[in-house]
Fold each of these.
Amino acid sequence: MRFLAISGSLRRVSTNTALLRAMASAAPDGIAVEFYDGLGELPIFNPDREGELTPQPVLDLAAKVRAADGLIISCPEYAHGIPGGLKNLLDWLVSRQEIPHKPVMLLRASSRNDISHAALQEVLRTMSVALMQETGIAVHLLGRKPDEIERILIAPEMRSSLSTALIAFANGMEEPG
């Protein structure tokens, strides 16, 4: 199984990115997690630039989404909403063939982003993804110092939880219907 991890944060020291990278490093044998790092390179969505005019960074993203068995998304909440960069990425994918029915797991690096989490779920449902809510996890990292975040994410029990979540995601995709 190959999953594509997408962080909704462009911050250099992002808790969401740290959580995704920790999940990738905890992946058990048979599961690979690739981190998408092109969020900041995507041009602002413009429907006039779809089809033959689609920018190369968008085509690169679409190829990664197509090649992935599923997506793992983690994003912060900005002003009770989805961060603009992640929403822009989703806007580029909304009318493409790579995204419908793609399994998606959501991670949360804060237990306080309920409003944006609900908004992201609504956008993803509108895009007809296979949102696998039962596999997502939340780890409260908000407001913690980088060394504390690292200690939390490398702890054996956390690595086990992240690995278990990946296995549940993979197994959920294999279950009929």
Note: The longest strand covers residues 2-7.
Amino acid sequence: MTIELQGEYLELRPLPEQDLPALLKVYEGTPLYFDGLGQHSPLTLAAVRAQWQAAQDTPRRELLGVYHRVTDLLIGAADIQIGTPHPTSAAVWLLIWGGFQRQGYGQDCMALLEAWLIGGGHAETLCAIAAENAEGISFLELQGFQRTGEPATPPIGSGNAFWMCW
């Protein structure tokens, strides 16, 4: 499935292997998210490559880079799993680099993903993976997500992640 979602300032597209070092920098620039998952050890390029490879190998899963359209700078990532956690839903794990947060990029990403997933008939509901991070939870709640009480499983698979759905 070839995906390119374009907004006014952003483009979401499959993340090529050569951008994995840039993705590692995005992750390093957003430590609160990973602290909320209980992942206090430093992330490595090997771990990022393993995440990327798992996305390539998993049917109905896409790891999309979030690129700034003017600069083509990688500013985030969206890991999508259609059919998770329920057959009619799609799991969305969205991360925007710390320096680009609170500027509307995350909201634009969610709107593009909603139009593609819900509007395109890939899912009936969206679920997001959250962690005990007040800013992340607040962002998801502003997008209309609510806690379900269910712990999240893959694509995160460990830590204190939980589902929020709408």
Note: DSSP finds five helices and eight strands in the chain.
